[in-house]
């Protein structure tokens, strides 16, 4: 038994090759019920190929195209760093979770355009929108804090009942900023 973060666990062993008595540690990945069902369907259909696990649809497109840019230039001096999975507004940067990165990447692809809850759910989570967007609002809330921490010149603007857009911030008298 090994422990990770104080939680005891058993690391399963898998045969090194078919018929071998020699084993090596196996990786255990916890998937949603829907994702596990999709993978089981592929395995049941006799899928002979490799399974690529990615964090977003955009990441899958990049990996399959073999065209993964090191750094994505963005408007307003804001950029995403794919290597460190962070957002940079020189000289500051903030680490992002895979979901935060995917959400910001989707919004930066077309700044100002409103992306619907369904589009964002599909792009960032790779799932179908079911009408509950609390997961999306939670990621937006965390991302807003991180963008503010680096004085990013943009704001994640909510479009009530529709979705979100990336809006530039405009200065007001007295140095305050407002979303356009």
Textual characterization of the structure:
This is Phosphate regulon transcriptional regulatory protein PhoB (SphR). Residues 1-22 are annotated as: Disordered. It holds the Pfam family Trans_reg_C. Keywords: DNA-binding. The longest helix has 16 residues, at 134-149. α3 (98-108) crosses α4 (117-125) and α3 packs across α5. The model is unreliable at 1-9, 67-73 and 175-180 (pLDDT under 50). The chain has 180 residues and is α+β, with helices and mostly antiparallel strands. The strands form four sheets. The chain has a four-stranded antiparallel beta sheet, covered by helices on one side. It has helices at 33-44, 57-65, 98-108, 117-125, 134-149; strands at 2-4, 7-9, 13-15, 23-25, 71-72, 78-81, 86-89, 92-95, 115-116, 154-159, 163-171, 177-179. The protein has a domain at 69-179: Winged helix-like DNA-binding domain superfamily/Winged helix DNA-binding domain (Arc Repressor Mutant, subunit A). The termini are far apart. A hairpin with a 5-residue loop joins β5 and β6. It is globular, with a radius of gyration of 20 Å. The chain has five helices and twelve strands.
